[in-house]
C-alpha cells in the first residue's frame, strides 16, 4: 500500500494537490533582498543614534596632566563640534616630571581619542637649547594616555644621551 504524498516504489505516484500546498514554498531571492533592505532601513536611525552617543562632547575644562614622576602640563579642553576636542596646554604649577620637557600643546582630537607630537625646547647643562621629541596618545573617555619621549641629546653639551622611554599619564580636572 502506498502512502498519500509518498512516491510509489516505481516512482510513478505523485503527491496530491492538498499535500503540496501544505509545504512552504521557498521565497525568491529578489523578494528576500527587498525584505532585508526594508529591515536595514528601519534599523538605520537606531544605528545612527548609537554612533552619536559614542562621539559625545568632550569633557570641557582644565586638567592636570601627570605621570607617576610628576606633572607634565596643564591642559584646557574645549569642544570644537560634535566629537571634536581642542586641547591647549602648557606648564603647570606642580612638581614637574624631571624627564619630560614642558611645552605648548595646541591640537585637536576626534571621537575622544587622538595622537599628536610636540617638540619642546629645553636646555642642556651648558645652556645649549635642543628639542625633545614627544609623541602623545590620549583617550578622553578614560582620561588617560601615553607619551613616548626621545630625550635631549646633550652628550656633546656636558650632559648625556638618555634612552627613549614611554610613560603613562592621567588627566585630573582642576
Question: Would you give an account of this structure?
Answer:
The protein has 174 residues and is α+β, with helices and mostly antiparallel strands. The protein has 2 domains: 17-54; 61-173. The protein is 18% helix and 37% strand. It is built from 2 helices and 10 strands. Strand 2 and strand 3 form a beta hairpin.
What's the story with the biggest beta sheet?
8 strands, antiparallel
> Could you name the ranges where pLDDT drops below 50 across 5 or more consecutive residues?
43-55
Number of helices: 2
The percent range for helix content is: 10-25%
Average per-residue pLDDT, rounded, comes to 77
**β-strand number:** 10
Strand content: 35-45%
Question: How far apart, in Å, are the first and last alpha carbons?
Answer: 91 Å
Number of domains: 2
**Strand arrangement across the biggest beta sheet:** 4-3-2-1-10-9-8-5
Shape by Cα distribution:
elongated
Our Rg estimate from Cα atoms comes to 33 Å
Structural class by secondary-structure content: alpha+beta
Order of helices and strands: HHEEEEEEEEEE
Amino acid at each position: 500500500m502506498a502512502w498519500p504524498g509518498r512516491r510509489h516504489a516505481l516512482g510513478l505516484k505523485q503527491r496530491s494537490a492538498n499535500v503540496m500546498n501544505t509545504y512552504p514554498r521557498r521565497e525568491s531571492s529578489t523578494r528576500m533582498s527587498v525584505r532585508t533592505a526594508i529591515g536595514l532601513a528601519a534599523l538605520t536611525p537606531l544605528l545612527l543614534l548609537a554612533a552619536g552617543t559614542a562621539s559625545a562632547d568632550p569633557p570641557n575644562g582644565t586638567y592636570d596632566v601627570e605621570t607617576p614622576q610628576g606633572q607634565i602640563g596643564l591642559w584646557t579642553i574645549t569642544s570644537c563640534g560634535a566629537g571634536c576636542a581642542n586641547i591647549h596646554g602648557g606648564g603647570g604649577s606642580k612638581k614637574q616630571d624631571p624627564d619630560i620637557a614642558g611645552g605648548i600643546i595646541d591640537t585637536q582630537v576626534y571621537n575622544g581619542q587622538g595622537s599628536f607630537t610636540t617638540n619642546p625646547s629645553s636646555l642642556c647643562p651648558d645652556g645649549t637649547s635642543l628639542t625633545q621629541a614627544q609623541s602623545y596618545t590620549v583617550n578622553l573617555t578614560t582620561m588617560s594616555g601615553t607619551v613616548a619621549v626621545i630625550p635631549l641629546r646633550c652628550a656633546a653639551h656636558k650632559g648625556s644621551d638618555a634612552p627613549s622611554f614611554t610613560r603613562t599619564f592621567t588627566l585630573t580636572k582642576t
